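dumping these here so i dont lose them again. two proteins, back to back, each one seq then structure tokens. dont judge the mess
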Amino acid sequence: MNGFRHFDAHTVIHSAETKPNAESSRRSLLGEILDWMLAPLFLLWPMSIAITYVVAQNLANVPYDLGLANALQVLGQQVEVHDDVVSLPMSAPARLALRIRENDGVFWKAMGPSGDLLGGDGELPTPERTPSDQPNITYYENHALRDFEIRIAYTWMDLSARGSGPVLLVAAESVDRRTQLANDIIKGVIIPQFIVLPIAVVLVWFGLSRGVAPINALQRRLRARRPDDLSPIDERLAPSEIGPLITAMNDLLSRLEATLLAQKRFVADAAHQLKTPLAGLRTQAELAMRGEPQTDTQESLEQIIAGTTRATRLVNQLLLMANAENPNTMEMSPLDLTHLAQDHIHKWIHTALQKNIDLGFEGADQPLYIQGQNLLLGEALNNLIDNAIRYTPAYGQITVSLHDYSDRVVLAVEDSGPGIPPEERGRVFDRFYRVLGSGVDGSGLGLAIVREIAQRHHASVVIMDTHRKRSDPDATGARIELQFSSMLQRTHQPFASEG
């Protein structure tokens, strides 16, 4: 037969576990930790700026207040009392010191016991003395002078020992330099934070990412597991903090495995128990047929034989399904797909001839080896051929083909029947599901078994339409492929050994 080249409307049924189409809407653990760490950090940052501003103001006042206190000391050293008369004769060093302070923006004045100006700038504010003011103690206040803010330092100099009343000494300067110093301090603290904070965020994110990396690795390993892999999770591969979670998951997997094994044993035991009475019932019906019964009785016996045949096939398929679902029965060995295909085609030639169907093989004659299970793959091919014969009308064609491509090995069964509607292709692999209106007897387990066996061999099942020239132009036909991944070990030469 000629090779098939034109296909359309294909549907691929992957053997791997179906992955969700969208990510879960739940927050990740990393996101939650970052939120709880970074949100308070960004909320506390403005508070840090405010506190830094207050501290900077206090730090800026200290040196300038000390300078004002020194100016008061210089003035105090120049006060003299002669014959109860207070004077302020300024020495040259004192004038020089105050002149330097004046160049820095410091102004001063001295008021005698009677409130007369002894010297200095008379426009400076004069603090009122309160009962709480102590002599020789320096006090500080903020005032406004000529529309700008100044800070003054003043003290009441006690001259009672020299026979005079207290003298008010005042030194003042603008707050501009203090504000500038405070701003410089704030900039020196805040600007590095603009650099350090993003770096800290990146380092926190990086550290947390490394911290949850084992959890992500565990998630990837779980996702990569096959659906039938219920083996315990190794607790040593996960952080100790999630050890209890791993233990709980292992307990759940153990209970689930026990439940599945009990279900499979029940199916296998029930199928085995049904085989013997069904075989006996069919034998008795066939013996009764040999006795030339009446017409009505003969029809009943024929229906009994047909019913027991269908029931026996169903039981055998249930046994095969249980065997395919049991991972302990999967012992891979070198398997020649070419020999397997040709051998099973010979078994079905007589059945195909009875329906006037042309059953043939297409592919290379040389051996094509893969790692597989001979019994299961043979049953998968049997189900595909049986399904094709059931749906292919008389004088139709069925072709079993085998091809080795660079990335996969394809074992296909193609027929000239009515085909499988695209809307049904996602369901024909469900157990006991049959396309309505086909008029063909069957249990609905054949393709489900094929998919199960394909999954065991890390293969996928593909359904296609075929448009080959045939007498019925409305027929589309069906092509079902078993695609074995290139990851499988295969060769055109026999395997030397399994070592």
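---- next one ----
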Amino acid sequence: MEVQFQIIRQTSNTAPRIQTYRLEVDPSSTILDCLNQIKWQQDGTLAFRKNCRNTICGSCSMRINGRSALACKENVGSEVARLAAIASATPANPDLLPTLTIAPMGNMPVIKDLVVEMKSFWDTLQAIDPFVSTSARQVPEREFLQTPEERDRLNQMGNCILCGACYSECNAREVNPDFVGPHALAKAYRTIIDSRDSQTEQRLERYNEGTQGVWGCTRCYYCNAVCPMGVEPMEQISKIKNEILSRKSATDSRSIRHRKVLIELVKQGGWIDERLFGLKVVGNSFRDWQGLSSLTPLGLRMIARGKFPTRFEASPGTQQTRSLIEAVQKIADRKLIRAEKMVDIRPTGG
């Protein structure tokens, strides 16, 4: 089949430009096969990263038709079919060639063409200390053994190949350069549940700070959508939040209050009483006068425009909603207790 590649090309000192290449390829050819064909047969100046060609190393991550993916994993036929499905509402022009747009990853500066500078990616990973703590490994005579069950808990996060796809698509990182990113927090959860690590509490305190850690995540789920290895970084971030919430009270920080108060109000009324939500979260139940004063201008504008609710009516089915939340909380509590027991019973070798 004949296809057209539109590749975003640039260097660190030039503006992006689109360069078009036509190829005759087999539908089963990967995007990386096509890029190799362009480089070897049409334009030797095209720059991109590659290594294993087998979805192992993560080197060839780039944006393929608007989403970050591995060029060695995606093939032309499935990508053309995906684009056709998206454009199904628009009448197709039979004279137009299928067009694939290839661009460098986001949230990282471009060095040349599809090659980006990944320093920030590695720096944020380093910032969360993604390794078992040294003190936990100071066992004088024997190895620090794990049971098969303890090791199995690490498998999903261990599948991360550090390709950068989730980091590239992270909306939170784009607007908040302090946020460490989904790749780092997925690795962070791996250390938290590792039975050999002795720094769980200290780690959770660090990941709980401001919007650098888990509370900087906007829950857009893009990281889950683009991860080629099924790591589901968003799910690991949620698990870290649950670990923090189980240890903290609502008065500790606004981020924690937001989650705890939301659940509390939904249990009470089936949906959120927005008047109480602002007072309890921002005002910390009248403990934070600075926070309360920040609500005053908004409250006055709402009153002036007749948009301030004077009363609250519980939603139908509040009891069922409360029962569902309590049932889920009981399941989560049981899982947390089992996890804590597994961590507390640390092997001593043998």
